[in-house]
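Problem statement: downstream parser choked on a complex file, so we are re-checking the raw output for the zinc ion run. The parser issue turned out to be on our end (a line-ending mismatch), but while we're here, posting the original submission so the record is complete.
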Amino acid sequence: MLEERTYKVNLKCVFCKAKTFQLPYEGYKPVSGDMIRCANCGHSNDYTFIRRIAINKIVAKIEKDFTNEIKSMFKKAGFKVK
Ligand SMILES: [Zn+2]
């Protein structure tokens, strides 16, 4: 079922697409408005901004998965789906 799937938010540097960030201390959790520094290129990223991009991607993926799920359900039920 769709609900059992897990979707991971992957934050990416807007400059180099790296997924690693330098965190000021262990266990640090960025909050809205924080700037986090890319561990690869050293640019500062707006946490709120890159988080929004990551979430938008996930939403798009969920919608796609959901559509596929519905289609396969219809197919199994014997309907023809384009
Ligand atoms: Zn970077």
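For whoever reads this later: The chain has a mean pLDDT of 90.
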